[in-house]
Design goal:
Distance between the termini: 53 Å
Structural class: alpha/beta
Number of domains: 3
CATH architecture of the largest domain: 3-Layer(aba) Sandwich
CATH class of the largest domain: Alpha Beta
GO molecular function, one term: iron ion binding
Helix content: 25-40%
Number of helices: 18
Radius of gyration: 25 Å
Pfam families: Fe_hyd_lg_C, Fe_hyd_SSU, Fer2_4, Fer4_7, NADH-G_4Fe-4S_3
InterPro entries: 2Fe-2S_ferredoxin-like_sf, 2Fe-2S_ferredoxin-type, 4Fe4S_Fe-S-bd, 4Fe4S_Fe_S_CS, Cytosolic_Fe-S_CAF, Fe_hydrogenase, Fe_hydrogenase_lsu_C, Fe_hydrogenase_ssu
Largest sheet: 5 strands, mixed
CATH topology of the largest domain: Rossmann fold
Strand content: 5-15%
Number of strands: 20
Bound molecules: 2 iron/2 sulfur/5 carbonyl/2 water inorganic cluster
Shape: globular
Keywords: 2Fe-2S, 4Fe-4S, Iron, Iron-sulfur, Metal-binding, Oxidoreductase, Repeat
Protein name: NAD(P)-dependent iron-only hydrogenase catalytic subunit
C-alpha cells in the first residue's frame, strides 16, 4: 500500500491508483470532463488538474498515479485558475446560444462545470469550428457543433463495444469525431446501441426523439394508443425524478403513463414470458433434431445489427424469435384487436425502452404483419421522463397504478430479462421443468448473474443430459464468444448475448449517468421484484397458457411462426 496526503488528509491506496481515485477515498471530489469511470482516463481536457508538492507543473488527477509520500493539493488558487482557463478554452468553441434548446439542457456536464467554476461571462470569443448535424440514423443524432472532443464516445464504441463506428479525424481546430470519410452513422457498421449517448458529457449525441409523434397519436381521437414498458425501465425511470439508482418505480410509472392519455397500458414482460416459451421450445427442437447450435438469444437489436455487420455467417445460430416488445406489438394488433373488436390499422403501439437500437428495430421490414408495423414508435426511458415533465405530472407524488389485463401480466422470470443473464436464467427455469416434469427447487441461477463479462454454467437436466450455457453482455464480450464459436472451441448449447454492458438496465436510452455501481443497483431492483413475485417462472404465468388456448394454439405453431418469429439474412 502507498500512503499519500491529499488536501491535508492521509490516504492509503494500492499501487496503480490514480490521484482522482485516491481523492475519492477521502471524499475529495475533483472535477472531470473527459474522464469516464471504468472506461477512459486520458488527461485530455485538463479540468482535473492538481498541484503536487515538488512538481513544477500541474498534473491531471485522472492519469497521474499515486506514489509514496506524495503531497497533493486540489483546491489552491493556481489549480482553480488553471482549471477555469481550460474550461474557458473548451467553452470558446462551444455553441453556448444553443443551451436552451439542447437535449441535455440542465443535464449537461459542461453547464454544471461552468456553474461550479463560477463562469459568469464568455471570456474568449472568435471563430468556432463548424460541423454537421447527422440525423440520418433512425436512432441516433450527432451534432458535431456541440462536441467537446473528450473522446468518451470514441472509447466506448471502440474498447467496450469493439465497433469503432466513430473516431477523431483531422487535426487541431479541424478535429471532428465522426465515421470514416465523414459518412453518416446510418451508413456505417453502427449497432445503434447508444452507448455513445450515455458516454457523452454534453448534447453532441442523443437519441432521435419520437415524443411529438406519440403526443400526436395520443391526441388523435381516432387512434387507440397502447403503451408497453420494457423490464429495465422500471428500475431506472425514478432516477429522472430524483430517486436513487435502483429504486423500483413500476407503480408510479403505470399511473404516469395512464395520465399521459394512453388507452391501454401493457407490459413487455408478458411477451418476455412468451419468448421463453417460444425460445425454449426452439432450443429443445434444435437439440432433438440436430439444429444449429449453440443457439443465441435474439432479444437485443443492437446485438442483431452487430451480428449482421460483423458475423453474418453466424446468423443461423440466432433464435428466430422476435424480441419481446415486437411480439407484444404483434399480439396487440392481432389477438387483442380481435378480442376487443378494434381495427388494427387504428391501433398505435408505443414501446418505452431502455434501448436506442429498438428505434431501428421497430422500423425493420421484418417487424410487421400484413404491412402493419408491430410497434409504431419506440421512446427511451429518458423520453418518457420528458413526456411526464411536459404533462406537468408530479411523479414522486403519484400513487401506484396497475397494468391492463391480460397483456400486462408477468412472472418474475420476465422482469429479470432487463439484467445481463436474466434471459438465460428465465429460460433455464422453464426448460428444466418442461423437460423433467419436476419442480425446480432453486430458481436462482447465481452463476449467470453479475457483471463479469462472460459467464458460463452447466446445468444438469435429467432427460437432456448436461446443458452448457454462456452469457455475454457488451459487444466486446460477445465478440470473444463469437470468435470461439467460429474456431470451434465453444461447446455451448445456448448463449445469451445482450448488446449493452450490464444488459438493458444500462441501455443507451436509460438515465445518465451510468456506471457499474448504477448497473448493479438497477439489476438488484429487478432481482428483488422477481423474488417478491408469486409466479417466478414464465410457463406458470396463467395468461400465457390462456393465450395459447385462446389464440396461438401451440408453441412454434403456425400462428406463432407468423406473428412471433422472424429471420435475419446476411
Ligand atoms: Fe430489454 Fe427485452 S429485456 S431487450 O434487454 O428481451 O431494451 O429491459 O425490453 O423486447 O422483455 C431492452 C429491457 C426489453 C425486449 C424484454
Amino acid at each position: 500500500m502507498i500512503t499519500l496526503t491529499i488536501d491535508g488528509q492521509k490516504v492509503q491506496v494500492e499501487e496503480g491508483t490514480t490521484l482522482l481515485e485516491a481523492a475519492k477515498k477521502v471524499n475529495v471530489r475533483i472535477p472531470t470532463l473527459c474522464h469516464l469511470p471504468e472506461v477512459q482516463a486520458i488527461g485530455a481536457c485538463r479540468i482535473c488538474l492538481v498541484e503536487i508538492e515538488g512538481n513544477r507543473n500541474l498534473q491531471p488527477a485522472c492519469t497521474f498515479k499515486a506514489s509514496e509520500g506524495l503531497v497533493v493539493r486540489t483546491n489552491t488558487e493556481r489549480v482553480k485558475r488553471a482549471r477555469k482557463f481550460s474550461l474557458e478554452m473548451i467553452i470558446s468553441d462551444h455553441p453556448m446560444d444553443d443551451c436552451l434548446t439542447c437535449p441535455r439542457n440542465q443535464k449537461c456536464e459542461l453547464q454544471a462545470l461552468a456553474m461550479e467554476m463560477g463562469i459568469t461571462e464568455i471570456k474568449y470569443t472568435g471563430a468556432q469550428s463548424k460541423g454537421i448535424v447527422d440525423s440520418l440514423s433512425p436512432a441516433i443524432v450527432r451534432d458535431q457543433n456541440k462536441c467537446v472532443l473528450c473522446r468518451r464516445c470514441v472509447t466506448v464504441c471502440k474498447e467496450i463495444q469493439t465497433v469503432s463506428a466513430i473516431f477523431p479525424q483531422n487535426r487541431s481546430f479541424n478535429t471532428r469525431v465522426e465515421p470514416a470519410y465523414g459518412q453518416s452513422l446510418n451508413d456505417v457498421a453502427c449497432a445503434m446501441c447508444g452507448q455513445c449517448i450515455t458516454a457523452c458529457p454534453v448534447g453532441a449525441i442523443y437519441e432521435k426523439e419520437s415524443i411529438q409523434d406519440v403526443w400526436k397519436a395520443i391526441f388523435d381521437p381516432y387512434k387507440f394508443v397502447v403503451v408497453q414498458n420494457a423490464p429495465a425501465v422500471r428500475a431506472a425511470l425514478g432516477e429522472e425524478f430524483g430517486f436513487p439508482p435502483g429504486t423500483l418505480v413500476t407503480g408510479k410509472m403505470l399511473t404516469a403513463v395512464r395520465k399521459l392519455g394512453f388507452n391501454r397500458v401493457f407490459d413487455t414482460n408478458f411477451a418476455a414470458d412468451l419468448t421463453i416459451i417460444e425460445e425454449g421450445n426452439e432450443l429443445l427442437h434444435r437439440l432433438k433434431n440436430g439444429g444449429v447450435l449453440p443457439m443465441i438469444t435474439s432479444c437485443s437489436p443492437g446485438w442483431i445489427k452487430f451480428a449482421e455487420h460483423f458475423y453474418p455467417d453466424l446468423l443461423p445460430h440466432i433464435s428466430t424469435c422476435k424480441s419481446p416488445h415486437q411480439m407484444l406489438g404483434a399480439l396487440v394488433k392481432s389477438y387483442y384487436a380481435e378480442k376487443e373488436g378494434i381495427d388494427p390499422a387504428n391501433i398505435v403501439v408505443v414501446s418505452v425502452m431502455p434501448c436506442t437500437a429498438k428505434k431501428f428495430e421497430c422500423n425493420r421490414p421484418e417487424m410487421s404483419n400484413n404491412g402493419i408495423k408491430d410497434v409504431d414508435y419506440v421512446i427511451t426511458t429518458r423520453e418518457l421522463a420528458k413526456m411526464i415533465r411536459q404533462a406537468g405530472i408530479d411523479f414522486a407524488a403519484l400513487e401506484d397504478g396497475y397494468y391492463d389485463h391480460p397483456l400486462g401480466e408477468y412472472s418474475g422470470a420476465a422482469t429479470i430479462f432487463g439484467a445481463t443473464g436474466g434471459v438465460m436464467e428465465a429460460a433455464l427455469r422453464t426448460v428444466y421443468e418442461v423437460v423433467t416434469g419436476k419442480t425446480l427447487e432453486k430458481v436462482d441461477f447465481d452463476e449467470v448473474r453479475g457483471l463479469e463479462g462472460v459467464k458460463e454454467a452447466a446445468v444438469d437436466i435429467p432427460g437432456l443430459a448436461e446443458v452448457k450455457v454462456a452469457v455475454a453482455h457488451g459487444l466486446g464480450n460477445a465478440r470473444k464468444i463469437l470468435e470461439r464459436i467460429k474456431d470451434g472451441s465453444a461447446d455451448y448449447h445456448f448463449i445469451e448475448i445482450m448488446c449493452c454492458p450490464g444488459g438493458c438496465v444500462s441501455g443507451g436510452g436509460q438515465p445518465i449517468p451510468v456506471n457499474n455501481e448504477i448497473r448493479r443497483l438497477r439489476a438488484k431492483a429487478l432481482y428483488e421484484e422477481d423474488s417478491n413475485l408469486k409466479v417466478r417462472k414464465s410457463h406458470e404465468n396463467p395468461y400465457i397458457k390462456t393465450i395459447y388456448e385462446e389464440f396461438l394454439g401451440e408453441p412454434l405453431g403456425e400462428k406463432s411462426h407468423h406473428l412471433l418469429h422472424t429471420h435475419y439474412t446476411p
